[in-house]
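Human: I would love a firmer grasp of how sequence relates to backbone shape in proteins. Take your time, and here it is.
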Amino acid sequence: MNDIIILKGKVSYPITLDPSVWIFDDRKVERQTLKSQNDESDSKELTARQWSREISEGNVSPPTLKSERKYERERILTGSFAIHLSHFLKNAEPLSEACELAVITQKGEVIVPLTEAYSYLLAFSKDGKPLKDDGPVHLLKSDGTTEATHVTEFQVR
């Protein structure tokens, strides 16, 4: 199976996507948090927690950072992750006449209005492993429900 996905069509810049490297991308999100995720409130909450921690603990000593790194490594090895499709659509710069995104799968295609496509995500990992059997990625709605599996290509039309 070819894990490389092409985003092409009515775009200024066709893009080649490699889901195997997204595990290292800081923009990834855990799939279990998608149902309760609200981007604005989550970022405010994260900032508030970090601020509170810095105020209460002061400068974090290296032993704490070492255990935090270990926790992050374990989370990556056991977690299920997705990444927002909007990052890639923005980089490809769809042309003004583009109005839909065709998600090409091994079983056909799913058509999504381009304005709606910006809210979708691409799942690329389950339980710490790449999606080999029904991947390389799954198309997810913003609430985490699966819209398509076996995704092989994206065409902006």
